[in-house]
Amino acid sequence: MIKYDEKYYYNLLKIHTDTARRIVDIRYKFIEDNILSIDRLPEPTILDYGSGVGFMKALAPEWVHQVDTFDIMPVPTTGITREKYDIICFFDVLEHIPDFSDVMPILKKCKYAYITVPMKPNDLTWKNYKHFKPSEHIHYFTDDLLKYIFEYMGFDFLVSGSPECPPRQHIMSYIFKRRQ
Is 0.70 topped by the overall pTM? Predict the structure, then answer.
């Protein structure tokens, strides 16, 4: 079992800074292209749920009003400071959460949910799949399953894609919008 402790945190910070910058830029571009292009959110507020070392906050572009960070690791976070957010991000988080009812109250605070999850290609065996980590990942998603879960929680599917690949492998990004 992976231990999300101070050592894990500092290892992420030290090793992955350049790659993290590229990924954060890709994520903000995905927000611009798929949320801001259809919904003029002046200076959006964002909650990065499962924020890890906080790269989304540290590297936020000027057009973002506020990024709050929350994580279970013993890392510096802002916590959840607002009653409502324009966007709540779950980057590489949902596969670790045992019970999705734990995040339902958080999801009620947002207009948009932005999710990234590992997604096994059909042509790979589990043995050869990089993200098959039984000691770390509790859930494995299919496209249909993830869409169904968010539809059940009151969201409409907007867009999906794999903008982080490269530099990453087999990661899918999704944006959902809360039903009015």
Answer: yes
Q: Please state, in angstroms and rounded to a whole number, the distance separating the CA atoms of residues 21 and 113.
A: 21
Find the range with the poorest average confidence among 4-13, 34-43, 83-92.
Answer: 4-13
| Two tokens, residue 84 | 């409502």
Mean pLDDT of the chain: 90
pLDDT band at 149 (very low <50, low <70, confident <90, very high): very high
CB distance 31 to 9 below 8 Å: no
DSSP 92: S
Find the helix packing angle between 17-31 and 6-15, rounded to 10°.
80
**Rounded-to-integer distance, Cα 81 and Cα 99, Å:** 23
Structural fold of domain 6-178: Rossmann fold (3.40.50)
Separation between Cα atoms, residue 37 and residue 84, nearest integer Å? 21
In the sheet that holds 45-49, the strands lie side by side as: 66-70, 45-49, 85-91, 110-118, 171-178, 155-161
Q: Is the pLDDT of residue 126 over 90?
A: no
Q: Which residue do the tokens 């830029």 mark?
A: 25
- For 1, the token pair is 């079992």
Q: Is the peptide bond before 121 cis (omega within 30 degrees of 0)?
A: no
